[in-house]
């Protein structure tokens, strides 16, 4: 399988807790991801609105926008084969209470507070990974990185 990049974000609820941050970082390393880039940042409200524009109009949009700009976050570009699906699987379902019920080993089940304050973000497709990596890491050249690095991971 081919090497893939995904965007993983540790949301403000988890960044506020050093032990959870540490556990999540450890989880990333244990899951055979390569950390390609890492960045600590805080969003302004308009960054939040722009990133989640597809959800404007949903009942939770204001809550989501408010929460995501409420404190610092940590973003990662992660690489491995099937990175997008693997990170989504580690995160678990969007809704924390469903996650606790159906997949108690997942990150959202273990650390999530509410359906909105659900600890982590992960891209859900190749297209969204490209868009979201560019959003968080505008200086990162995906195609250049792939050209240079992808051959090194072939076995
Ligand atoms: P995901 O983050 O699993 O990709 P999504 O893209 O559908 O989920 O929604 C983006 C974020 O919006 C999600 O991480 C938390 C919030 N959200 C989604 N559905 C929600 C709901 N029913 N109630 C409250 N917050 C919700
Ligand atoms: Mg999503």
UniProtKB/TrEMBL annotation:
Record family assignment: Belongs to the NDK family.
GO annotations of cellular component type: mitochondrion
InterPro entries: NDK-like_dom, NDK-like_dom_sf, NDPk6, Nucleoside_diP_kinase, Nucleoside_diP_kinase_AS
Protein keywords: ATP-binding, Kinase, Magnesium, Metal-binding, Nucleotide metabolism, Nucleotide-binding, Transferase
CDD domains attached to this UniProt entry: NDPk6
Matches recorded under PROSITE patterns: NDPK (PS00469), NDPK_LIKE (PS51374)
Entry superkingdom: Eukaryota
UniProt KW Nucleotide-binding keyword: yes
Entry annotated with the keyword Iron: no
Cofactor requirement: Mg(2+)
Reaction catalysed by this enzyme: a 2'-deoxyribonucleoside 5'-diphosphate + ATP = a 2'-deoxyribonucleoside 5'-triphosphate + ADP
Organism: Chanos chanos
GO molecular function: ATP binding; metal ion binding; nucleoside diphosphate kinase activity
Protein name as it appears in the record: Nucleoside diphosphate kinase
EC number: 2.7.4.6
């Amino acid at each position: 399988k081919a090497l893939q990049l995904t965007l993983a974000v540790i949301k403000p609820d988890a960044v506020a807790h050093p032990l959870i941050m540490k556990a999540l970082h450890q989880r990333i390393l244990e899951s055979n991801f390569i950390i390609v880039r890492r960045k600590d940042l805080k969003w302004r409200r308009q960054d939040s609105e722009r990133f989640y524009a597809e959800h404007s109009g949903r009942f939770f949009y204001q809550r989501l926008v408010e929460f995501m700009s409420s404190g610092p976050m940590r973003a990662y570009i992660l690489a491995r084969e099937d990175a997008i699906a693997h990170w989504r699987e580690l995160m678990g379902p969007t809704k924390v209470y469903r996650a606790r019920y159906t997949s108690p080993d997942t990150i959202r089940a273990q650390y999530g507070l509410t359906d909105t304050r659900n600890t982590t973000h992960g891209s859900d497709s190749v297209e969204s990974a490209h868009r979201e990596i560019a959003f968080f890491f505008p200086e990162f050249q995906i195609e250049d990185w792939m050209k240079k690095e992808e051959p090194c991971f072939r076995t």
